[in-house]
């Protein structure tokens, strides 16, 4: 998904600072974006090292102030078939990758952009954040936390020239997404999602939900009686 967004943004007179943990995939993304006319810089680091990530984003922003930052990192996982709940270590890792890392870096960029009086911040959440998924408690919980943080950050930066856009997509046809078992209704192509994300950021939209039926599912989760909702969520668990 990060590669698709970078390619959508790539073009002449554009500087893209690309981050990623996998150096080979990062270089491939940089090559694709350079072919589209963009100037690219890469940085390979593990975003679970929060202190190093903060130092890196401060250095990159000082060198060339960012107009837009897109935090697309994330890890999805589900409970192992023989576990009743997810392992504590997995919960910790997803909390770092899905919430602590992007929220911390977004706060740092919010401060820098507010001081300049302009900027756009995009946080990639998930439609899973709308629902209490018993087989993916850490994923659903961390994405729900990121959604609330994004909305609060948006309000905090209102009036300072900085927009914050939360994106809550459903299933995307990526390599990581294909590894998740179970059905994937309304599967979306990464380039289509990337185009919608960039347009929403440019418009300063607060929240983009993709595809639109997930808006209906969000309201259904809120409006159903708890007993009915619980029964429905429990029925969604993938087969062991």
TrEMBL record:
The keyword Oxidoreductase applies. It comes from the Bacteria. The keyword Repeat does not apply. Keywords: Oxidoreductase. Signal peptide: none annotated. Belongs to the short-chain dehydrogenases/reductases (SDR) family. This is Short-subunit dehydrogenase. It comes from Novosphingobium capsulatum.
